[in-house]
Amino acid sequence: MRDVTLRQLEYFVAVAEEQSITRAALRCHVTQAAISQALKELETVLGVQLLIRRTAKGLHLTPTGRAVATRSRTVLGGVRSLVSTADGTAERGTYTVGCFPTLSPLIIPGIAEFIAHNYPGVRLEIVEDTAPEIQERMMRGQADLCFIYEAQRHPEVSTILLRERHFRVAVAADHPLATRDVVSVTDLADYPYALLNLDPATYLNEAMLRRFGVVPTIVYRSTSVQTIRSIVGRGLACALLMQEVEESDEGRPLRFLPIAEDLGTNSLLAALPRGVRPSPLTTAVIEHCQSAIEA
User: Which residues contact 211 (CB under 8 A, 6 or more apart)?
Assistant: First the structure.
């Protein structure tokens, strides 16, 4: 049996990430025929179909193809690490982090400072998008690490717990519930409600409340957690939120009240493609986040 070559893996990963033989050829500075030939040889050597080719719909990885692409990136990354170690250029280049937008203020500034101080040869690239999109990018090799909530986890990623998160009822300092030490979910039925209209908060909030027989009177919806906090701070509504702050972005005091019922967790996670060994830099970033984010 012929051996798998690094060139075949390089071309296959390019196709997997670009989802196009044409774009992969441009990226690798070779002809489309060279890419196609390498893919055919790789499938022959491995004895599996890696790609589904659909007219006018581009290329799609088979389940086996996705697994092979993930392992191929690990192999190519190991080779690059070997070369960089030998020529003294280790820990250089671009490091890409994907982050769900509401987590960015909590996560990204600390990572930026950590990398700037400890890895001056590394340029941090930040990708903020929906949880499905940043995880898909990561599995295509376009991001090194992602930060998501527990409810957003893709089945093909592995995760590391950074901070356990529980929902709290956010109210203004002069709200009728503000004097309580703890509130019941049923208490929320009596007051206007502001909903963070951003998955997973959208469906989680309503599903959790309905599970306890509460149909919230939703008077405000926003995709911005800052807007929701400001509405709450003005005493216009209460909300279910996870990240506790002392005041709204307008400087109005807030209270975050524990909930008597067990609504479960929606913890903060670091995500990696399943089966991929984290690089030393990724391990360092995760360890930094674990120590920097207060429990």
Answer: none
DSSP for 14-63, written as a single string: HHHHHS-HHHHHHHHTS-HHHHHHHHHHHHHHHTS--EEEETTTEEEE-H
Residue type at 125 in one-letter notation: E
How do strand 157-163 and strand 168-172 relate by DSSP bridges?
A: unpaired
Taking the CA atoms of 8, 282, 162 and 250 in sequence, report the sign of the dihedral they define.
negative
pLDDT level of residue 121 (50, 70, 90 thresholds): confident
Distance CA 17, CA 53 (A): 15
Q: How confident is the model at residue 219 (pLDDT cuts 50, 70, 90)?
A: very high
Tokens read off for 1? 């049996």
Identity of the amino acid at 177: L
pLDDT reported for residue 169: 93
Tokens of 41: 């040889």
- Six token digits for residue 77: 């990354």
Whether residue 149 is predicted with pLDDT greater than 70 in this model: the reply is yes
CA pair distance 241, 239, nearest whole angstrom: 6
Which token pair is 288? 């930094």
Is residue 91 within 8 Å of residue 281, measured between CB atoms?
A: yes
Residue 122 forms beta bridges with which residues? Answer: 93
What span, in angstroms and rounded, lies between the C-alpha atoms of 243 and 254? 12
Enumerate the H helices of the chain as residue ranges: 6-18, 21-28, 32-46, 63-87, 104-118, 131-139, 201-211, 225-233, 280-292
CA 46 remoteness from chain centre: 31
Say how far apart CA 9 and CA 29 lie, in whole Å: 15
CB 132 within 8 A of CB 59: no
Contact 127, 137 (CB under 8 A): yes
The one-letter code for the residue type at 55 is T
